[in-house]
Amino acid sequence: MRTLVLGIITLAYPVLIYLGLGHFEPKWLALLLVAMALTRALLTKEKIWLIAAAGAALLAMVSFTSNQLLPLKLYPVLVNGVLCAAFALSLAYPPSAIERLARLSEPDLPESGVRYTRRVTQVWCGFFIFNGCAALITAFWSDAAWALYNGLIAYILIGALFLGEWIIRRRVRAAYG
Fold this sequence. Notes:
Layout: H1 2-20, H2 26-43, H3 47-66, H4 70-73, H5 75-92, H6 97-105, H7 111-141, H8 143-175
Helix pairs in contact: 1-2, 1-8, 2-3, 3-5, 5-7, 6-7, 7-8
């Protein structure tokens, strides 16, 4: 249940921050990020997510002590950076992140599948770099642009990438029989 609540709050984070601006000072909105960081730290055993939780707690602490919104708006940049690092590390130390996911449903993944999943992992790394840069730009642009991009457009782009990869994967699998 905590994982589900954390997922929903994480997805809704930009919108919650944007809507909260009209009612609360940034230092009080920082408590949402602290709660997310603590919950993530309690739910995970993976070092990379503990680092992300520590980064989120640091952003929240800076926001709370300075009463500035910018550190809270940098959270999506942090998330994209952590995801990019995790995927990139999986390329350096195989199996790749996408190969691990693929092996959940296909344990005997052929070599062509390993190459394909490695390429898809590289594509996701590129996406995380792009998305993190867009999140950073919007953090300095306007609150509305930041909320729109990080609370809607980024998710549409993620969905488009999932859909595009699914279509390509079907074609690749058909080509390999």
